[in-house]
Amino acid sequence: MSTNVKKSNRTSAKKIVLVGVFGAISTVLMLLSFNVPFIPTFVKLDFSDLPVLLGGYLLGPLHGSLIALIKVLLNFFYNGSMTFGIGETVNLIGSLSFMLPAVLYYQRRRNFKSAVISLVIGTISATVVLLTANYFVMFPLYATAMNFPMEKIVAAAHALNPLVTDLGSLMVFALLPFNIVKFGLNSVLAMLMYKRLAQTLKLEH
Length: 205
Description:
The chain is mainly α. The protein has helices at residues 3-31, 49-59, 61-79, 86-106, 112-145, 150-160, 167-201. α2 (49-59) packs antiparallel against α3, α2 (49-59) packs across α7 (167-201) and α3 runs antiparallel to α4 (86-106). The chain is globular and about 60 Å long.
């Protein structure tokens, strides 16, 4: 076996191990979710997208996608689902719509400016995708599956945020700022950790 083949096999094995490790860390971070003021209690903030994003940058978009999938599946098996899988689906959509555009853009040119732009693109992409999916599909589906009328969902959100009066304002005044803060914080942490992590692991896709 040639040296190049051995090196390629070691790199592939290392990536597989890292996908598992990042997936496990992401699951733990997902379990450590918490509520945010003025945001409905059924929407929680966590930093589980950080390992997904870092994994995507270091290992590539396919491996980053696998990390996101592992996170959601492990959380499902550990916690089950109180939303018939709707919440988990939303989480996976958010992770992929955040990580994939960011990583694909950064792969074109690897420098600090591109990294910043890629994170902005990822944040905007995830926010737009999630608001669209939640408004047209996920919230109506949740209301039907849980037999919980949309009016009650809006009323619960209104109790915490008076600006929320209907589904549209729930998206604009609650989920929009929430997603910007969530993905923005994950982006900042990724910026702080990426280079050092890449140097430590001696692996950059």
